[in-house]
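check this:
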Amino acid sequence: MPDLDTDPVAPSETSAPAPQGPLHEQVFRRLSADLMAGRFVAGQKLPLRALAVEMGTSLMPVRDAVQRLESLGALVSTPGRTMMVPQLSSEERADLIRLRMLLETETVHAAAERRSEEDLADLSEDNAAMRIAAERGDTTAFLAANLRFHRGLAAAARIHFLEALLDPLWMRLGPVVRELTPDRANMLRTTDYHDQILRALLRRDGAAAQAALSADVMDGVQAITAGALPQG
């Protein structure tokens, strides 16, 4: 089982938390983003002291942050009282995807109606970054850009409370995606789905945007059954 000290996907890309808000909130946001972007894997142990060293903080804000993540179900405590990324059953993984389907199809429909030109530009930039990462075989960069794309859709939807519902789902899904490691073909196929979503948003066609996102997510459901998960 991987741990923070030896696993290559430990969050080395991000520097110490940006100085915005209380330190425990900065650490919480950093760890949440790392989970959502698949920088940890299912079953990975996260010793508090190693996290504190990684982030350049004391133990107290790290302890506060991981306790919040535990309350959300994004982390679990082991018998030895070390925090760990939970390991999910195949049924639980499939249910996460189905919940994403329910929430994100409504999200993308609203985004088609409410998006701005700036939203479109940002989403196009994120999908372009995904394609570059896919061509290079850079899974870490791909997953980070993919997260930005989907969070950008949520922002474009302008639905109150949506982030509070989607983020916990992504915290659970990100480690699963990293564990299964989408290959180059999976990643490129995802960018094609995203191109379809972008074209639908450009036309303000909510139904077409929903259809493209549904196809993307269903691809993920089928891949779970086959044991490999392309990330939608």
